[in-house]
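User: structure tokens for this one?
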Amino acid sequence: MKIRFIYKMLPAIFFKKNIEGKNFNYRATTKTLFVIVASPLWENEGIIQHELTHVKQFYRTFGLHIFLTIFSKSYQKKIEIEAYKKQMKYSPEHLYCCYVPNLMNYYKFKMTKEEAIKALT
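Assistant:
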């Protein structure tokens, strides 16, 4: 476990998930102020920053982030773009292999490749 602070006072609590022999369909996930990161990516600052962005979004919306994510596809799209933009500062080389395909397929945003590239750049 490790703790990072947002705005120097609000905690984000990280847990490492050992993925050996387990079905782990994501590299990291954030639930309110708790973040679970796959063990091989525990030190990946891009992933950490992506998930910290989601924790900031949670705090910024006073917890409404949870409901907005569930009920608003446009909000979900906006927050994922924000998080991927932050992650790109640490690993821009993954734009075409990871970030664009994720926005197009994983989240089912119905974006074209060109739309996803434009949103991230």
